[in-house]
Amino acid sequence: MATKDTAKYEKKIVFFLDILGFKDIIEQDKLKPSDIIDRMDFLYDKLIPDTPPEIFESKKVTKFSDTFVISFDYNQGSEIFFTMLDIRRVQSHVLRFGMLLRGGCAIGDLHHGDKNIFGPALNEAYSLEKDIAIYPRIIIPDNIIDEAKNHSIRLHPAEHEKEYIMGLVRKDTDDFNYIDYISYDSVASEFDDPNEDWVIYMVKIRPYIIKGLKSNSPKIRQKYQWLKTKYNATLSTITVQDYIEALANKGATSIP
Length: 256
Description:
The chain is α+β, with helices and mostly antiparallel strands. It has helices at 22-27, 33-47, 53-56, 79-95, 120-133, 142-148, 158-166, 184-187, 194-213, 218-237, 241-249; strands at 10-20, 60-64, 67-73, 100-112, 117-118, 138-139, 169-171, 177-179.
């Protein structure tokens, strides 16, 4: 364990994640402290992956209030991919219960100890979350994707690593990459029955989007307007008639 005198910066990849609407979860949902702890612990556990020890060895996850910070060595084999995969799983899961995440990712100097987290990389990831992300999305800069292709494990050939990463993200209208947690191509593989369960997923998240669009807060409506756009765009890409009928029959239609 590093002491005050031995603590130093190390080159790390860092993700800064924020739960949107946490204040409302506490004040309006009137959850007991034990329920809030259960939700936070669930997120924490999902962000600690069941990957092999040689992949996991440098990874740390810290939570405080409504924030999670994840870091690992910049050259940890394929860990950018695995962490993004874990985050996408968390995003798609908590959205089914009306929770949204926003965040950013950066590479650079970081000290991530048991009690203290600080450094230029954390500042950059925080700035992406606070100033750039705006909507319920986690920004993945181009330099992170470029870094990922330089550090792969044997199961992920180097020439395919960037392809795997790009399968998790979409390019938004402002040219920023974000982790895609809506589209069939990105999310369906997370479900036991990709076809049936993705339809159920789209059905479950629709009411939460509609509720958010009715908020009295312009900032909240802005976030859900973005999500509505992604939701409707996803539905518009479905061309298989069986899916179209299944979605319509269960009420997963475009949101006006």
